[in-house]
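User: My collaborator sent over this chain with a note saying "see what the structure looks like." That's all I know about it. Can you take a look?
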Amino acid sequence: MELKLFDSERKVMEVLWEADAPLTAKAIATKLGELVGWNKNTTYTVIKKCIDKGAIERREPGFQCVPLVRREEAQAAAAAELVEKVFDGSASLLFASLLSKKQLPPEEIHRLRELIDELE
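Assistant: Without extra context I'll predict from the sequence alone. Here is the result:
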């Protein structure tokens, strides 16, 4: 599923993913009010956008929100967009950029080597 989540939509999805269960829109609004200071109307507007995109399903009773997209799917879509937009579609340029600035700790570099070995 090709899905682009904006930062605001990702915040709603993160609340749902963390809960690992359906939540009411009201519960999401309460949580985001605490975390980022959103009011109920803002949260409901963003939830509606997520529903329109197919990222959330609304169920009744009680305006239950069910995530239709897994966190890993959203991460993969965001990573692919980053590689395409910033690195002209080249994942190797992304890794070269990260490695050249020593931005990755040794354990992450080791994990990347393992992932590459698994692909070969």
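A starting point for your reply to your collaborator: The CA atoms of residues 12 and 47 lie 7 Å apart.
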